[in-house]
Amino acid sequence: MKKFYITTPIYYVNSLPHIGHAYTTVASDVLARWKRLSGRDVFFLTGTDEHGGKIAQASSESGEKPKEFVNRIAGEYKARWRLLNISNDDFIQTSEPRHMERVQAAFEKLLKSGDIYKGIYEDWYCISDEAYFSESELQEGKCPTCGRAVSKLKEESYFFKLSKFESRLLDHYEKNPDFLSPKFRRNEILNFVKSGLRDLSVSRTRIDWGIPVLSDPKHVVYVWFDALMNYITAPGCDPAASNPMQPPFSQCWPADVHMVGKEIFRFHTVIWPAMLMALGIPLPKKVFAHGWWTVEGAKMSKSTGNVVDPQKMVEEYGVDAFRYFLLREVPFGTDGDFSERALLMRYNSELANNLGNLLQRTTTIISKNLDGLVPNLKYSPALLQEFPELIKKTDGFYDELAFGDVLEAIVGIMVKTNQFIDVKKPWAIPADQKGDLQKVMYECISSLKVLAVLLFPFMPEKSRLIWERIGEKEELSTAAVALLQAALSGKGREFQPHFSSGQTVAKGEPIFPRKAGILK
Ligand code: MSP
User: Fold this and answer.
1) What is the CA angle 8-14-17, rounded to 5?
2) Could you tell me where the DSSP H helices lie in 123-165?
């Protein structure tokens, strides 16, 4: 079976991971976890982009040798991803031999085929973005992307014949409407390609921290050519082969989703597919560009001092609440504004008062009035009549990367179940009407069971905790695969949660203790 292959961008090691990097990585992780639950074999890749002038500069400022420096910062990324419970299957560093050798092989192959040729390059260069700009692209003489100063550079360079792929790219966008996602970003790319593509300079002679061109080592490979290749080098592509689609690479490729921020959409939807076409490799199925976070209305930047460190948020609110917030607060794809106030509000209203409270009241009533025994009734709970339909809908939302819609549906179950408790008032059901009480609590505990499963991709730790509190013994992710399979393959069958006889709830502290307002 082909694996479901999902990638994040590889992050530059000249800065430490911040909320923007965390956003892409958490979103990719949520998708990877869902796909695993729904029975797919997943390959989830992330990593670090370690070459180029900007990294060389950062390493010399730190006083370390480049390789020591990049390894240290890559280590910071790895540690941060562990903290955020990122379930990546591989982590690629572009300074690893497995990557460098394959980039060199690809470059030589394109030189031989004539898709890369030697010429002279002269234009305005922004070191921070590692990109050349023409005079007309500059904004008030500065870099149009970051606003920093640019300088005129002239160098011998190898060029990739990007212009040759114009009509093939347009044709691909036309025939594969999901390739450019979300849809509202499509026109930007179509217009860019239609306005004419220039050949792309893909080597540098002024920089030595990079991958040397094998046949002409005074050149190093341009960082974007180097970086984009990570998506095929990590799963083991041999670009020199006459047919690169061999195992293990062919088990992963084509990638199902390249997740990227909107500012690097063009690199992934114009340059990258053209490189793949030149190499004779099929194109990824989808490139999805999400929006950017500002912080309290302002652009996040080191100089403003408003960079949000995911570690601080995790220390304050817990990893799961932070992951939940990132994908709950704004529809995935559009820009959003981060504020701790908004995070605190979501935490208290949805996690503490809604989900946490639902678990607390359900387990408390079952402990007190039913001796802790989970009612093991053998029918489809009324609250979950539409569960199989909902799972199918949810699966569709995931395919569109509509994480906000997934969470909206999940919150709907929480709200409905809490309202049900308010109406049924199980605490007031007299002791001699135990059967009635069992029926009410069966509804609640069934909701909690599916909530633990549905929330698992977003909140793996708290979901496991809910799972334990309701007395489930099987490992959550294993049980979830069976439960979701049944719903996804369902022929409109009714859903039954299946509790074991003698299953008991466990009491404990609230899983999301309410937080007092702390805010500036
Ligand atoms: N190294 C390149 C990517 C090469 S991929 C072959 C790069 N690295 S980066 O470190 O600058 O990371 C860029 C990514 O970080 C963006 O695409 C986006 O995913 C994320 N973000 C960085 N700042 C962000 C925000 N303020 N908001 C949301 N995400 C942003 O570009």
Assistant:
1) 50
2) none
CA pair distance 296, 324, nearest whole angstrom: 19
Write the residue with the smallest CA distance to atom 13 of ligand 1.
Answer: 11
Dihedrals phi, psi of 61, to nearest 5 degrees: -65, -30
β partners of residue 289: 260
CATH number of 3-290: 3.40.50.620
340-488 fold? Isoleucyl-tRNA Synthetase; Domain 1 (1.10.730)
Q: What is residue 492's predicted lDDT score, i.e. its pLDDT?
A: 59
Q: 28 C-alpha to center of ligand 1: Å?
A: 13
In this prediction, residue 518 carries a pLDDT of 56
Low-confidence stretches of the chain (pLDDT beneath 50): 519-520
| Spatial contact of 251 and 257, defined as CB atoms under 8 Å apart | no
Contact between 314 and 51 under an 8 Å Cβ cutoff? The reply is no
Distance, CA of 345 to CA of 188 (rounded, Å): 35
Q: Which residue has the tokens 């979300």?
A: 182
Give the binding-site residues of ligand 1, using a 6 Å CB cut-off. 9-12, 20-21, 23-24, 49, 227-228, 230, 260-261, 264, 292-293, 300
Strands 200-201 and 180-181: unpaired
Q: What is the mean pLDDT of the chain?
A: 95
